[in-house]
Design a protein that fits this description.
six-stranded mixed β-sheet, 16 helices, D-Maltodextrin-Binding Protein, domain 2, 2 domains, three-stranded antiparallel β-sheet, alpha/beta
């Protein structure tokens, strides 16, 4: 049975408040922590659509990122499919070092986060962080971000404070993801210069003519913002449920696949269950690989159960 627990929780909510308002984690129910990010929402739905027919009960708690990490620490969250590193390292590293959680897989191949510009701006010769300050007036000295308090915001504020790449007199315009991408789309339509925080997977890579800037100093991480999107399991839960640990070790997607999911659900606003079901039905070979050596809750092979439900 798929029980969906929807919570409205502010980012400042403490772990103790989570205990008071959310259903308590237990060995029978797999509790997913899901922030309001389309990609993680769809991935979680795919996982639930695969696990529920196998006899596993799941529950989704829609809460903020900090609360998810706190919930894993308190035992209320068992799995998180969106640990973006290195951006989340300050939340992730101490909890991994303390043994609270383990990372079992990188579930997105090809993820990246760094600064982006319109393709025509890139083609004009602005191709690196080193090129930005020389063309400050074109950009009005502004970098657009997607929210104060985000890891990207912290990286850019630190870069401005330290005058990295001559950005000391630039301003970070931190609004929201929607407002940031609306500004990017508007600037592109007017053939004006704009620089914003871009990442893949995301629908922006499918809909906007854009390029990522080179950054030899790797402000957003090694290899120009190359990122891992880790699957985290609460350590106690993983040890008690080795069969599900095998499943999550094999549960992964390409950046392009996830960009499609984000576009279909977050941009086109298609029904969540429909998007997840379509991906499952269109990728039987991938599903079979995800379920290799995975058993149902009764101990039977998992793949034949799911194979019988696929639409041909």
């Amino acid at each position: 049975m798929n029980t969906r627990l929807r919570l409205s929780v502010s980012a400042a909510l403490t772990a103790s408040a989570l205990v008071a308002t959310a259903a308590q984690g237990d060995d029978q129910t797999l509790d997913f922590g899901v922030p309001a990010w389309p990609g993680i929402t769809v991935k979680t739905e795919i996982a639930e659509q695969l696990l529920n027919p196998l006899g596993y009960e799941t529950r989704t708690q829609e809460i903020g990122l900090q609360v998810i990490y706190q919930g894993m620490e308190s035992g209320d969250i068992d799995v998180f499919l969106g640990a973006w590193l290195p951006a989340q390292r300050e939340m992730f590293t101490p909890r991994k070092e303390s043994g609270v959680l383990i990372d079992v897989a990188n579930n997105v191949d090809g993820a990246q986060m760094t600064l982006a510009v319109p393709a025509d701006v890139y083609n004009s010769g602005i191709q690196s962080f080193a090129d930005l300050d020389e063309h400050r007036d074109q950009f009005n000295g502004r970098i657009y971000g997607f929210g104060a308090g985000s890891a990207a915001s912290e990286i850019l504020n630190e870069a401005i404070d330290s005058d990295a790449w001559g950005l000391g007199d630039w301003n970070l315009v931190d609004t929201s993801e929607v407002a940031m991408l609306s500004a990017a789309r508007d600037a592109i339509s007017r053939e004006e210069a704009i620089v914003w925080v871009g990442w893949t997977p995301h629908w922006m890579n499918l809909e906007l003519p854009m390029r990522y800037l080179d950054d030899p100093d790797n402000l957003f991480g090694e290899n120009n913002g190359e990122s891992d999107v880790l699957t985290l399991l609460r350590t106690d839960y993983a040890e008690a449920n080795p069969n599900l640990t095998i499943f999550f070790e094999q549960f992964s997607f390409t950046a392009d696949e996830q960009s499609w999911m984000i576009q279909a659900f977050g941009q086109e606003e298609r029904a969540l269950s429909e998007v997840a079901t379509q991906w499952i039905n269109e990728h039987p070979e991938r599903i079979e690989a995800m379920l290799a050596d995975v058993m149902t809750s009764d101990g039977d092979p998992a793949w034949p159960i799911i194979e019988a439900q696929l639409e041909r």
